[in-house]
Structure formats: structure tokens, C-alpha cells
Amino acid sequence: MPDDFKEYIQHWTLESVALVALDKPLGLLRENSENFTDASKLFAALRDWMYLTLDLEYTPSLWRIVATPKFKRLMRALDDIQDVTSKYTMEAIAKLEEEQQRGIEREENEKSILEKLLKIDRKIATVMAMDLLLGGVDTTTSLTVGVLLCLAKNPDKQEKLREEVKRILPQKNGDFAADTLSIG
């Protein structure tokens, strides 16, 4: 397994969660994308937030009395998360307003979570996007790594999954739709 496997999974997870939370691909998986700098900043801030929160909450520390260097780093990480999330939320608002001016209206079931929340309240949409990022990246990374480990240890299940995917997507570049799944 490559040394950066976990980091790659974390990048993929952040990209996936951000697509749901911010209605936008970040471009974190491609270094030459236009959003790579902001995406990298967001990734680093989320990583710092995760480790610093764990450290500050579960080890003895003076941060509750005096602002320690780790506490200050945590606050900077949270500020970075808010800045990047707010920027992407504002971009989504501008995109939706432009679409509205052009008369583009999507069906309710085609609207993103962010789009639905923006119609209710911009602050709620921004907070919800941040919350999805804060809560979704670490948990989804752990889940994904766990599933991949289970598949690696059970080749028969891996083969069964492969056959199911080939049945649903006979063409490598075919479209994936929820109605093609056989759940049950």
C-alpha cells in the first residue's frame, strides 16, 4: 500500500463531502485545478482541527485559562474553515442567482442540499456546510478505509461486489443511476 494512501482517501472523502455540502467539486484530487489552493487550505485546516481538538479536549492543558499555541492554531484552523466555506457558499449563491436571472429552475429532487438551505437562510446554509465538512470527512474516511480493508481480507466478497458493479455498469464510462440498484 502506498505511504500516502490514507491521505489520498482523505482527499477523496473531502472532495465527496464538499460536493454534497458546498455543491462544488474542490479539485483536490487534481493539483492543476483552479481551486487547488483553497481546497488544500481547507484540507489542512480540517486536519489541524481534527488533531488539535482531540489533543486539547483529551489531554491536560491550560487552554481554558490562557490561549496556548495549540489553542491559537485551532482557532486559526476554524477561521480558515469558515473563510473557505463562506467563499464557496457565496460562489454558490452567485451561481444560483445567475441561473435564476437566466430562468433556469431545477426540479426539487435535483436541487442540492446547499441550494435548498440557501433558499431558507444563508447563515444556516453556511453553518450546515461547515458542519458537514467537520463531521463528515473523518467519519467517512474511517468508514471507507474499513470497507476497503474488509474487501481486501475477503476476496470472495470482493468478487461478488465486482460482479454487481459490472452488472449495474456494463460499460466502464456508463451512467450510474439509483434505480439500477437492487436493494433488498
From TrEMBL:
It comes from the Eukaryota. Keywords: Heme, Iron, Metal-binding, Monooxygenase, Oxidoreductase. Its cofactor is heme. One of its GO terms (molecular function) is monooxygenase activity. The keyword Transcription does not apply. It holds the Pfam family p450. The keyword Oxidoreductase applies. Belongs to the cytochrome P450 family. This is Putative cytochrome P450 12a4, mitochondrial. It comes from Bactrocera latifrons.
